Known about the structure:
Elements: H1 10-24, H2 52-66, H3 69-83, H4 109-126, H5 132-146, H6 169-173, H7 181-190, H8 195-202, E1 209-211, H9 229-238, E2 247-249, H10 261-267, H11 274-281, H12 283-294, H13 296-310, H14 331-351
Antiparallel strand pairs: 1-2
The protein binds protoporphyrin IX containing FE.
Residues 69, 72-73, 75-76, 79, 106, 175-177, 179, 184, 201-202, 204-205, 207-211, 214, 250, 273, 275 line the site of protoporphyrin IX containing FE.
Binding site for Ca(2+) 2: 206, 251, 259
Active site: 80 (proton acceptor)
Cofactor: heme b; Ca(2+)
Amino acid sequence: MAKAKSFTLLPFISFLLLASCLSSSSGEQFKANVTIANGLAYGYYNYICPQVEGLVRNYLMQVYRSDAGQAAAILRLQSHDCFVQGCDGSVLLDRSPERSEIPNKDFKQQTFQIIENLRQIVHYYCGRVVSCSDLLTLAARDAVFFTGGPDFSVPLGRRDGVTFPRPGQTSEDLIAPTAKTTDILARFARKGLNFVDAVALSGAHTIGIAHCSSFRGRLFPNRDPTMEFSFYDRLSRYCASPAIDPLVWLDFRSPFRFDNLYFVDLMNRQGLFTSDQDLFEDPRTRGTVINFAYNQQQFFVNFAAAMIRMGIVGVLTDGQGEIRARCNMRNSDFYNLESVLEKDNISSSAAI
Ligand code: HEM
């Protein structure tokens, strides 16, 4: 379990991880066997911005090296984008109601800024041809790679959304940590994702952190009987005060490493959320959990395929949507703002 202050070790540990993943990487990305949405393609930017994937990876290497916590945050951010109104970059919009709803409140401004920085770099070299939703997809894929997970190709060609989800939609579409498997499978199915995808994608909880408030109900007033006793003992002492809401590792066995130990946690009844632990308790998903716990390669292959399937949910392509000039604003808002600023400048210089 982590104390928030142990994050001061992050730069050092993340440097070691990055070094080991870069040196062990053969440079080969594998392509999962997934039917992709019309309008998306592998190598979509080969002619109009061939350097996009290299630019993204280079920048993120520096970011994740100095703050490995951002890798987990970006991986989570992409899933929140895709589950609400599809992978259209709507979660990046400052004015979208989804930004103020509870599941998204904890994202730091810095995480959004990383995607905007990527946009600036890529648009500087290629012009405004790459969407913010594709940049988020690439950043999430690279978060997995840089923390030791599989390196896989992702289809690109998404365009950015121009509509906001309605208020309340975010809390409805994102799954609560208190959810049981029946609810989880139904919600994944609504997005076209099957039970193996649900288990594999939950394996993203092999990295990152969570607040005690996300699983407090499993500790108080009584121990959730599906939680192993010594794990409960540590957590209940650590999370004792509701006034402060400390952070704990999602996978205490290897919190910085993208590996299959999350599934070993579940087999030991040391999953953090009900939504995690119940995947082992439920007979429909237990076999997949055990399979992934014993076979990391199986997990990696299925995770990559599930990420691609999640990454095509509700995408906008071809003539739909737009390529944003700023990731945090729709172009209509951006150009309105520009003309307001221009008017302001004219009137202030007229006043002089
Ligand atoms: C059953 C579905 C899921 C539920 C209920 C769930 C719930 C949560 C919750 C409650 C947190 C911690 C929030 C906090 O307390 O601060 C979290 C963190 C996280 N989630 Fe999920 N999640 C689910 C699926 C996913 C998926 C599909 C991904 C990515 C593919 C993902 C990636 C992550 C990551 C990486 C973190 C750590 C974030 C950080 O350290 O900043 N989750 N999730």
